[in-house]
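Service request form, structural biology core

Requester: graduate student, group of Dr. S.
Request type: structure prediction, single chain
Budget code: on file
Notes: please return the result as structure tokens.

Sequence provided:
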Amino acid sequence: MRPTPPPRSLSLVDVQAGAFRRSIWIVALPAIVENLLITLVHFSDGLIVGWLHSEVDLAAALLGGVFTWVATAPFMALAVAATSLVSRCWGEGDYDGARRYAGQALAFATLVSLVILIVAWPLAPRLVQLMGAEPEVVGPAAAFLRIVLLGAPLGLPMLIANGILRGTGNTGTPMRITAAMNAVNISVSAVLAFGWFGAPEMGLLGVATGTAVARLFGGAVALGILEWGRAGMHLPLSELITLRRRPLARVWRLAAPAMLERGLNSVSHIVFLAIVAVLGTTTLAAHSIGIHVESLAFMAAAGLSSAIAALVGQSIGAQLPALAEQAIRRALFGLGAAMGVLGLLFILFAPWGVKAFGATPEVLRLAGMALQIGGLELVPMASAIILTGALNGAGDTRSPLIVMILCTVTIRFGVVYLFAVTFGWGLAGVWLGTTLFWIVRMAGLLWVVRRGGWKEIHAREALRFAPGKG
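Core staff response, request fulfilled:
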């Protein structure tokens, strides 16, 4: 028997005058808040580590956190595939198809998360050494990484669960899950780092423990919501423990390029940080502070990007590509204006603002200088992230991969090394090269969007993966 369709309030596409404009912000605002909450917890963790007054701890948290970020790459790709498929099925009214693809993405994610934990745990010291970290940083960074990995079995599949909910147009529930998770993270991290309320004073490892506990909590809540069907999408347990060839093949077809893009992006980030590490622990610590602050802008763009992916996907599923184009234009204009203002604030006030991290004077000086340069890259960075989300929502995960590879090889590796090491510009060269990277990447993605081939992908996929077709 066909399940009862979800209420109309969860459908994004409405062609009545002004309705779609409202839909953009109804969906986008919770997604933006969700990503800002994620940024807030990273920012808070950075503050806690900064107030430990140890350059080694700052560098160790950055390096250990990088590999945590690398581990999330395949799950972010699966979340992209889940959001794209669920949103397009939702837009055309195929709710059974949405559940089918959601279940396959989540089942596969759970399996991969266990593999990552088993493989990465014994290799933690070696992984940190590959970054070129100084000897005194390797031990703390490896310990930090191992503790954070304990949250992987539930925390990593949570990314896909939240992507599934966003694909249905429900961005409010992921936002609330993230808010609760952040409260747990900040509370546990601070209590254990400083030994408050009689707890053991664990320093850096207390921050890692808070992160692991929060991810386990958030993952359990997200999976429970899907299992109970309280948020518009009900996934029975049978959908979460069974892998089916054809639905999984379609998920994989979308996820593989996105996974490769994020994997290469993660590897490039490691190489990128290795370049920074060559400049010394002080420079690496300053770069860590700069990344924490800039992540406020990055995550706001990522939040809007995930909402635009759902809007574009549902518009394409409903055969209304003009609405998809409208969503892209409004997102680029609105966020571009906001990032322009934020970039100006970075340029004017960054040297003063970084003092909140309580690090050494030289670290704070370098961090402030880096953020002043970073103010120039906020608009192109945000635009590139939104365009990538729009293409992914329509089912095009290959074009962003190609653009990313070309820009990474030519600019993020070559130009950054040239500026930072060959020219001797140090951290300033790193951030100037990164600004150029985002400008070129934005231009490439704009070219892809304007060509318009992404509008036809869903129709071709629907024919290729039609139920019953061999």
